[in-house]
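TODO from last week: model Peptidyl-prolyl cis-trans isomerase.
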Amino acid sequence: MMKTLVASLALIATSVFAGPKVEVETNLGSFVVELNQEKAPVTVENFLKYVNDGSYVDSQFHRVIPGFMAQGGGFDSRFNRLPVNAPIKNEASNGLDNDAATIAMARTQDPNSATRQFFINFVDNDFLNYSVTNPGYAVFGQVVEGFDVVQKMAQKPTRSVRGMRDVPLEPIVITKIQRVTE
């Protein structure tokens, strides 16, 4: 009886806090991210706009640094910069940390400059977290399936392209991206 009650409560807690899931198919395989609308509503809404309009398709992971992260969403497979919506407010103070397998928004030096580029942390990157002296990078979800596919990115050789370092020699391209219905 007690085991059943605990299991039921765990399922209820999971379903209450479970956010939308997005499957990302790449030429290396697929992975699924679960988004946290509760703690990062602005960031999740922004990310889903790009998912829903299909503009992440044919974009590439253009910056891959082993032991750090893989960044993508901003350039197509031919390295043309993709159009952006208005920048969003930085939600890095939401209590979510840049831990391994989390997805966060990339930005410039301006904390409120994130548009479409995102990154997935290969490891815990505490120095990217919000603090009183650091505006941080807003985490808005985590990879819940296929993190091994993301980790494969770190095994690919990189080069410099148009002044940008750590660009995979063979482009890692998003071939399909869609919300997962359960």
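Done. The beta strands are 21-26, 29-35, 59-65, 69-76, 102-105, 118-121, 139-145, 158-161, 164-168, 174-180.
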